[in-house]
Amino acid sequence: MKVGVLALQGDVREHISALIACGVHPTTIRRTAELDHIDALVIPGGESTTIAQLAEIFGLFAPIKQRIAAGMPVYGSCAGMILLANEITEAKDDQKTFGGLDITVKRNAFGRQVDSFESDISFDDGSTDLIRAVFIRAPWVERVGKGVRVLARVDDHAVAVRSTHLLATSFHPELTADHRIHRYFIDEVAKPALQKVQ
Amino acid sequence: MAEVTGTGRVKRGMAEMLKGGVIMDVVNAEQAKIAEDAGAVAVMALERVPADIRAQGGVARMSDPDMIEKIQAAVSIPVMAKARIGHFVEAQVLQSLGVDYIDESEVLTPADYKNHIDKWNFTVPFVCGATNLGEALRRINEGAAMIRSKGEAGTGDVSNAMQHMREINGEIRRLSSLREDELYVAAKELQAPYELVKEVAEKGKLPVVLFTAGGIATPADAALMMSMGADGVFIGSGIFKSGNPAQRAAACVRATTFWDDPKVVADASRGLGEAMVGINVADLPAPHRLADRGW
């Protein structure tokens, strides 16, 4: 499986390290042609408004949207979650998203940087071990539509969700040494989704 | 389930999210909107851009809280603000306003010529300037969660930013080449804590994100600094002191993302109109050089 990391802006390097630790050899994606060589995509943390604008300017926006609609597995953390949401609130005027996940995400829902936090939370991948989750000016999921399952919550707010081929977290597993979420994406989301397409 | 705020990981992590981006100086809500629309990853709220501080002289201080709050209300991206070196009360005020990052900045007039702010005492993260590795590590030791190489702010002359970036990265490369038993003396020479020196020698990079600042005025300047190893770019006077701020801002964002592709940088550089009027750093008398502030 070839995995790309959208490398327009954000903590690309950390996602690449996490993916390498999971045994995949990711490539960075900044150009439309580079999309043709990947089976799955990771959208990093960063500034969702900046990433969306750069994607638009460099012609990546429509192709990524189409690939997602056609079933390409994608994992998005924080800004990546916002970009995968069909609907966002507290958005900048006319802010666009790739969409694909039938959820409504509230940007900066946990507050400003002084409210950013880390916490041990449970993640519904079959393990009862807690996971250290780092939330930075983090969004949460306000509404979950059909076909979307909640995998983690903080104070009743959904902070990790998945559909058949898309995974999104409000927090940043790439900032910790625990690669469980990336492994979950590869093994439990991307691989089964790609098998189904074939 | 205990939620902990203000941890090192949360503070440094915030800077990781800004990587590959441009942070722009703005003095009002309209400019902040223009910066956000142009793709800035954050804005720096300040009362006067460095070029005006330089032109008007006098003591430069923290901005009016009203102005900062108006900017916070106007944009959804992070809002940073500057406190004077050593002025921990200005920093407390900025933290209470909920700014996302504090720049303890030599562009403002220092409040303390000996001590910087003890940044561990704050929940909000700090970025500090540095001209060399020792200075960067002293700031990190005081709790800075992000470093920016200093340039000569408000000049539009990129030479100082270049020099300091080379200096910092050169010293990091040198550390990586030393034997472990030579790091004690290296720490002494750098006037920096041994633990940090050892960490840098092992990893070959700073333990925090390294941006660059000071004198960056064109897309090619931004790309130059990225190719020197900066994680991202601060642009101060360069945007709103130019002929066409919106277009120049967007062009600098594009050039920062594709710093390694001269075609994109060329396209970004087309038809931008007047760049800010520059001042050669060499023409500045030493007392007027901002980069020398901080120690």
TrEMBL record, chain B:
GO biological process, one term: pyridoxal phosphate biosynthetic process
Pathway: Cofactor biosynthesis; pyridoxal 5'-phosphate biosynthesis
A Pfam short name: SOR_SNZ
Start and end residues of each PdxS/SNZ N-terminal domain: 9-213
Enzyme Commission number(s) from the entry: 4.3.3.6
Keyword annotations from UniProtKB, A to Z: Lyase, Pyridoxal phosphate, Schiff base
Catalytic activity annotation: aldehydo-D-ribose 5-phosphate + D-glyceraldehyde 3-phosphate + L-glutamine = pyridoxal 5'-phosphate + L-glutamate + phosphate + 3 H2O + H(+)
GO MF annotations in UniProt: pyridoxal 5'-phosphate synthase (glutamine hydrolysing) activity
Family, as annotated: Belongs to the PdxS/SNZ family.
Name of the protein in its database record: pyridoxal 5'-phosphate synthase (glutamine hydrolyzing)
